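Human: If only I could read C-alpha cells as easily as an amino acid sequence. Take your time, and here it is.
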Amino acid sequence: MDADVDVDTRRPPGHQALLEAARQEFAERGYGSTSIRDIAQRAGVSLSALYHYYGGKQELLFALLDEGMDRYRQACDAALADAGGDPAERLEALVEATVRFRAGQRDRSSIELTEDRSLNDEQRAHFRRRQAAATRMFQQVIEDGRACSLFLTPYPDDARRAVLAMCNAVAQWYRPEGALAVDDLVERYVSLALTLVEYHPRRARRTP
C-alpha cells in the first residue's frame, strides 16, 4: 500500500458507528443535504460526542473516503498476492477485485465517485494521491504485459482508463437483486479487459 496509508488514515477508536451513519446519510441524502445533526442522530450519539471524534461533516467525509480506499487496496493486494506473476492473471485479479468491491460496496463507491469534490484542498490532494496509487497497479500490470508481448495494445493508457471506468461504473448501476450475478459480471469484465489490452497468450511450441 502507498506511504500515505500508515500515517494519514489513522482514525480514532469508536469511530465506526459514526462512519457508518455518515455513509448511510450521504448515500441517501447526498453530502450537501446531510447535516451533522442527522449523522449524530443516526449514530445514536450527541453532537458533543461526535465532535469529540471529528471536527465536522467534512472530516467525516474524508475519513469515510479514506476508509473506503483502505478496503479497496486491501482487496486488490490480497487478489494480487494470489495471482502469481503472469500479467494476464494479475490483470484478471485486479478486475475481479474491483468489480466485486464496487458491486458489494456500492454506497461507499458512489460516495467516492461523486462526493470527493466536497473535500478541502489538502484532503482532496491526499485522496488524489491514493487514487493515483491504485491506478498505478493497473498501469504496472499492463506495462508488464506489453513488455513480454502478452498485451499488444498500442494504447495502454487508453486501455487502462477504459478498464477502470467500466469497473468503477458498476457501483452506479449494479443491483444484487437483478438478473446478473456478480460471478457472471466478473467473467464478462475480465473478458472485456483482456480484449482491451489485446491479450495474446503464448502458444506452446510443438516438438517435431
